[in-house]
Amino acid sequence: MNDKTNKHRIVIVGGGAGGLELATRLGRKLGRRGRADITLVDASRTHIWKPLLHEVAAGTFDSYENQLEYLAQGAKNGFHFRLGRMEGLDREKKEIQVAPTYSSDGEEIIPQRTFGYDTLVIAVGSVSNDFGIPGVKQHCLFLDTKTQAEQFQTRLLESYIHAHAQNRPLELSQLDVVIAGGGATGIELAAQLHKVSRLFRAYGLETITPNAIQISIVEAAERILPGLPERLSQATHAELNRLGIDVITGQRVTEVTDQGVRTDSDQFIPAAIRVWAAGIKAPDFLQDIAGLETNRGNQLVVRPTLQTTRDDAIFALGDCAACPWPEKDSLVPPRAQAAHQQASHLYRVLQQRLNGEPLSEYHYRDYGSLVSLGRYSTVGNLMGNLTGSVMVEGFIARMVYLSLYKLHQLALFGFYRTTMLSISHLFRASVHPEIKLH
Ligand SMILES: Cc1cc2nc3c(=O)[nH]c(=O)nc-3n(C[C@H](O)[C@H](O)[C@H](O)COP(=O)(O)OP(=O)(O)OC[C@H]3O[C@@H](n4cnc5c(N)ncnc54)[C@H](O)[C@@H]3O)c2cc1C
């Protein structure tokens, strides 16, 4: 309880696809009405929906214009926002420890702090897993955070401008990109980069010809998109080849250098830009944190109520939660739709907890997976209760793909503001270039 107000304290760590929706909805329902004290802690000041990061990286989505300010969101929706990175947990004292925050000059602006809770929700997402492969950390770009995606965009833009201005022919692989990982993230990024390389030429960097840029994807499994039905993976493979993107399957990256990546069959793919999108894990600080049960990927093991197995007051959701999916005898996959569903579930469960009622169990509903190749095509499978799995492509697939983001915006802004945002987005799109050029 908050000593001053005697209110139940709910602390949510991580304001991403799941955590921010939960904080917003609980803030409106409980925080505003004074029924509980809701606090959101995030390592960043602003939020951007993670599935858009490959578009931020390619420059087709302006993160600056589309980001959400946590402080303002909290003020409007009845929760407190506290900036900082969680680094520890004391289950006895029911406190989380948050690391100091530094300015861009390295000056400490917020000291180390602790926040007490009665209920804690950990929603810190995931980070790339380099599996200890030599050179990945040093020589690859990642798409875990907005900052990384923005750095990627700057690097890409600068390399094109530099190549255009140089008074000597392009060097071999000077603009080439290799992406490790043929899952949805790697493929969507490749398609966006392909589109962008064409747009730069259209915007006047005419030395950047399609032949000057080779984009390659390296996937360890025998086919790309191993989680999707084979037909879709084949159709996507063919579409990527049609775009001139080189797809190499059945080869594992064993080393990355500042010149390119090497695979287990000793093939070397030279590239100036190397991207790692080949697997994720929950952040390292969660590993065995305060005696909670975690798995090999650092995920907190949770029960169907989303409570951690060893502490009833601590819940986890989204990518950092190892949540059982009994129908498939596996874990709920790390996807935005799972984080969204779990946030909606916890919205109800935390009210049940406050009222002393039994907690409902969460059941993952798989609505299918969609992969967007930007303007070229969107493919995927949708799951229906009666129809089973249906493969979709083209316009319908694109609409369903976009609807996931709209659901996120609806949870954060409500119907009216989401509609206004969509309209303003259309207006902006009609006057701004298709890519960010600064
Ligand atoms: C490029 C890309 C494309 C994707 N495309 C899709 C897609 O098309 N469909 C789909 O379903 N999924 C997609 N995903 C996966 C999807 O983004 C994640 O499954 C989803 O965002 C997980 O939500 P989350 O709430 O668990 O975590 P996140 O959305 O990652 O949010 C985690 C939050 O925690 C904060 N945080 C992290 N560590 C700390 C800490 N120690 N202390 C405080 N705060 C912390 C972060 O700043 C962040 O705000 C994609 C992912 C990427 C990278």
UniProtKB/TrEMBL annotation:
GO terms for molecular function: NADH dehydrogenase (ubiquinone) activity; NADH dehydrogenase activity. It holds the Pfam family Pyr_redox_2. The keyword Flavoprotein applies. It comes from the Bacteria. Keywords: FAD, Flavoprotein, NAD, Oxidoreductase. Residues 9-343 form the FAD/NAD(P)-binding domain. The keyword NAD applies. Belongs to the NADH dehydrogenase family. PANTHER family: NADH DEHYDROGENASE, TYPE II NADH:QUINONE OXIDOREDUCTASE. This is FAD-dependent pyridine nucleotide-disulfideoxidoreductase. It comes from Thiohalobacter thiocyanaticus.
